[in-house]
User: Fold these one by one.
Assistant:
Number 1:
Amino acid sequence: MSRVIWFDMRAREPKKAIDFHAAVFGWTFTKSNMPMDYWLIRTGDKKAPGIDGGLGRGEPVHPVVNTIGVDDLEAALDRIQLHGGKVLSPRTPLPGVGWYAAFEDPTGNQFGLEQNDPSAR
């Protein structure tokens, strides 16, 4: 069974989003070492239920994207299309993390997929 492992937000003004979520929810933000403006979000104690996420600079068309962890990204993309979903972005490396793709379910909800692979480049 695959679980939601991450959420992803976009903001035209990341500092404004960081200040808001830190003040309201107590989340902490750490600038990532990725080649784009991206902050890792810690939403609470690792021992408590919940997930962490990330914030990137961009238009919040679909403001929050939940990412589902899968063992085989290509197989998951095949199943998505077989069952009426649409691939929005193909397999893309997240250097040092793994492989990412995005899809839309048949009702228009958007999700990310991630396959763990620290050797991804």
Note: The domain at 65-121 is CATH 3.10.180.10 (2,3-Dihydroxybiphenyl 1,2-Dioxygenase; domain 1).
Number 2:
Amino acid sequence: MIGNSISRAFTAPTLGAFWLYWNPVYGFILARFCYRPIRRRLPDSIAVVSTFAVSGFFLHDLLLWPARLAAGKRPLFPVVTLAFVVVALLVIATDALEVDMHALRPATRAAIHLLCLALAFAASILASRFPW
């Protein structure tokens, strides 16, 4: 089942579909309790970016902070949060440009999805190196 979810995600025809398939449980929870309530009051693009930021921070970055604080260290730069915001912007841009990869081979679609993830995380890691 997990293998099918991963395969389905990486061969998705759009970047937005990748994220719908990537983690269906988180996706359902985030859609119901984050995206939809925000979308009722604000534009879709803000709801998308906010939802990705919430996921990155509360479901990824924040999980490491208690252990670091207990060890007397400062919290880490929110690398996943920033990377997810970059991904959200890529999702919005590719949707607006109507980018559809149906015609591409599954391996090519997987490579494009991996490239998007790599670029987002590279940008975030680079940003974490600046003295904020």
Note: The chain has a mean pLDDT of 94.
Number 3:
Amino acid sequence: MIRRHAAALHLALASADAISAMALFVVLSVVRFDPESWLATWASAGIDGWAAAVVFGISWTAALATQGLYRLRARWSIRRELIDIATAALLLAVAMFALLFWLKLPDVSRLFLLALFPAQVALTLALRLAIRVAFARARSRGLNVRYMLIVGANEASFSFADRLARNGDLGLLPIGYLAAADDPIGAGPAPSGRPILGRIEDIDDVLHGRIVDEVAICLPASQWALVEPIARICEEEGKVVRIPASDGLTIPGARREMFDGIEVLFLVYGPDRAFGLLTKRVIDLAGALVGLLFLAPLLGAIAAWIALRDGRPMLFRQARVGLHGRAFDIRVAALYCVGLRREVYEELGPLDELG
């Protein structure tokens, strides 16, 4: 259920971060200055208090987005998340102090700003902790499971899959292994009971033919030359890549964190689409509203014509199976508009060949 509404969840989290930042800005202004005169204090510095709160909320959300903090699955440890939140706060603080210097606004309270950023880090971290607890409980009950493909069929890959199984709160289920050329195991089940899905050269077929959310690359140092090509393939597919026990391996843009006593290098590919989706949604709604205003008379006439000629319902509705077996509903009126009568439509059946 959460998977189907991931974009909405990301937008809700971004909105919550923005609103909480605005609220914190106002609360600290009231505490630092005075409930009666905090707006006047900001005005004396040449700044509108409410506008400053809005700008700070939007800027804080943007700073978090630059650190990829709306990819909730990217970080396994709260320590790594704290580091990235603190980094976002540091970047925003530097940008804000530079902006104040450039705009020549020396009257803005530096003490207020020095209190604002640590408080914002603490508030955002508390929100992330609450989300982690809620998701961990759901995943421990088998909800919101994500599927991981493990590249390599060796003792290290088997051990890593077992570590994932022991940490059920992550909600990651290994679906199987891809064997390297030097791996002694061919087709069939691995010692852990999980299947060998093929060789490394079959990764494209596996990514397209199965549900894969993340890819773990568990190859020995002698095969690290394969890591970059595999990572590029995963980048094209927008998959999160994990490389456990990667001491000595460096990849641009990768981050490190500790997991169950081992170091894991992780790369988050694919854009953080929350803001892009929000913009697209606004454009879609605006365009649809304009289109409906112009087409409402025509659509009403077509609906009346269908009702008089063929009766109700005027919209055909049916459950279909989409990507990865996920069901969705379709509603179609086009068949009626091209003049097919109900009895002909019922004889034709599903729209598999008609589009």
Note: Residues 240 and 284 are 29 Å apart (CA to CA).
